[in-house]
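Researcher: Checking consistency across runs. Here is PLDX1 protein again:
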Amino acid sequence: QIPVPVLRISATQHPVKAGLSDAFMILNPAPDVPESRRRTIYEYHRVELDTSKISSRAAVEFTPLPTCLQHQSCETCESSELTFNCSWCHVLQR
């Protein structure tokens, strides 16, 4: 159960994010404390949900789009009609 409607939650006090994202993390030495590391997360793709549709007892289903990894040859990769620009790696055969 959601105790407070999501649209009533203040973004300044607690930002609400719903969806999926791809990211990678890099650990860098913190300049002020040499023994510690600062974690930096770089997000490179995000699929956001409409927060007005979040409610108690609701579910969301994500259906993945086709990717380049499904192709087994250079010809099928480069002739595919995916929504992004594919290229074939001869070293990896992908």
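Researcher: Does this match what you'd expect to see?
Model: One thing to look at in this run: The CA atoms of residues 67 and 82 lie 7 Å apart.
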